[in-house]
Amino acid sequence: MADFDYDLFVIGGGSGGVRAARVAAGETGAKVAIAEESRYGGTCVIRGCVPKKLMVFASSYGGLVDEGREYGWDIGEATFDWGQFKPKLEAELDRLEGVYQRLLDGSGVERFDQRAKLADAHTVELADGTRKTAKHILVATGGHPVRPDLENADLGIVSDDIFHLDTLPKSILIIGGGYIACEFAGVMAGLGVKTTQYYRGAQILRGFDDEARGLIAEEMRAGGIDLHCGTDILEMSKADGGIRVKATNGTEEVFEQVLFATGRKPNSDDMGLEDLGVKLGRNGAIEVDEYSQTAVPSVYAIGDVTDRVNLTPVAIREGMAFVETVFKGNPTSPDHDLIPTAVFTQPEFGTVGLSEEAARDQEPIEVYVTSFKPMQSSFAGRSNRVMMKLIVSQESRKVLGCHIVAPQAGEMIQMAGIAVKMGATKEDFDRTVAVHPTMAEEIVTMRNPTRKS
Ligand code: NDP
Asked: What is the pLDDT of residue 365?
């Protein structure tokens, strides 16, 4: 058998790659190396979930201050200072990157802080020209945001850039209607930026439950976001005070910043993959089988570069399943079924399972929905609404989908996700006693179906 420098060489130090590297090294004693060209922690920690969530927190205090006054607190004028927040955000990301590096070092993973590509099925070439051989190579290089094919698109920014702004713009136009567009629309509006959003389709958050999408759009507008569906950018050019944008709805307006949140693309370019026989699919995604193995048996791929379900916890699961399969002799496929997820819009959206529309196409269902004004903000005189919704199979009685639009819906759906994953029936939900007084209790108190179809 050939001698290799390593048992495993991981390319990419994001959530998936780091987890696979340190579990393989720490739990199986494998000799492991990892290469990262940018910062350890990857999209999630450095330019995604973590800084985004901190910005969501930052943006929520304005509303809380207003609510606090209604509860009797005497609070003076509250203004947000980006100059104070940004260095703290950067320091926190530095701290987290350090944690990731120490986790790798502590597990005995050798780090190469540079770009790496594949030279052959068992060889990685680093940016400085060094070559390292490995019995297995794991590609976990993630993805990157893409701008639309539009003249002057480089005048706009993408989500990676938003954390590095020197100052907050007075106005921003956000293009797109997915997770990132909707989350940043809420963040920007909450921080006091005049926020406009154009989405080319009929309703934001395509693919999710229609009723939830409708309520989120309504609440986003009520929260001050000037959201235009069925509208896209036509032309953009430099102008005094920002960027002049012509839109398909006939308007022409100047925005200080334009954010393209128009999707992401796997980082598979210039990696030597195709020359080797690794197959790339739509959008450059690495094609893998149910064990994350590519067409080249020694090369595996996990996370966003495979464009399966682009979520951090899924990449981590795929990394763990890879280690289980390759280093523990226990072939394990990552389970992509019934993944709970949250969109950190304001209000949040927590969802697991099938939308009403998808479930209806599959089998006869009952739909239970309730929408109400939550106690906390209602007391403060606000008229915002929340929604709890269950999709139930008429035949098996199983809850096929659970959709929550409410503050803290991300926290709620994690718990409901366990029940749905276990195959809980509507009657299981019914026999669970309500936690009172909470918003979440409504999920177990909906007695009669709102509709059947
Ligand atoms: P999405 O693919 O979710 O959304 C892209 C949006 O841009 C869609 O609304 C799409 O419209 C629109 N779009 C695409 N191309 C164009 C174009 N040329 N012109 C105008 N509009 C366009 O991507 P995101 O970047 O928002 O997020 C990527 C992924 O990252 C998510 O799917 C999710 O998996 C993950 N993510 C998860 C988060 C979380 O867990 N909270 C947060 C952020 C990201 P259309 O619908 O018509 O195709």
From this structure: 98
Percent of the chain scored above 70 by pLDDT? 100
For the stretch 152-183, pLDDT in tens is 999 999 999 999 999 999 999 999 999 999 99
Tokens of 86: 């940004």
d(CA 210, CA 213): 5
Asked, as a colleague might, if the bond just before 374 is cis with ω within 30 of 0, I would say: no
Give strand ranges (E) for 79-184. Answer: 110-112, 116-120, 123-126, 131-139, 143-145, 157-158, 171-175
- Given pLDDT bands bounded at 50, 70 and 90, which one contains residue 426? very high
- Ligand 1 centroid, distance to 146 Cα (angstroms): 10
Note the pTM of the prediction, 2 decimals: 0.97
Rounded to the nearest angstrom, the distance between the alpha carbon of 306 and the centre of ligand 1 is 16
Q: List, in order of start, the domains of the chain with CATH numbers.
A: 6-143+265-326 (3.50.50.60), 153-262 (3.50.50.60), 341-452 (3.30.390.30)
DSSP secondary-structure letter at 287? P
Residue 305 near residue 141, CB atoms below 8 Å: yes
263 Cβ below 6 A of ligand 1: yes
Residue nearest to atom 41 of ligand 1 (CA): 343
pLDDT-derived band at 121, boundaries 50, 70, 90: very high
Query: How many Å from the N-terminal Cα to the C-terminal Cα in the chain?
Result: 61
Tens-place pLDDT, residues 343-377: 999 999 999 999 999 999 999 999 999 999 999 99
> Which tokens sit at 423?
């195959």
Region label for 147, one of left (φ > 0), alpha (ψ between -120 and 50) or beta (otherwise): beta
Question: At 305, phi and psi to the nearest 5?
Answer: -65, -15
Distance from residue 175's CA to the centre of ligand 1 (Å): 10
Q: Which two tokens stand for residue 90?
A: 């950067």
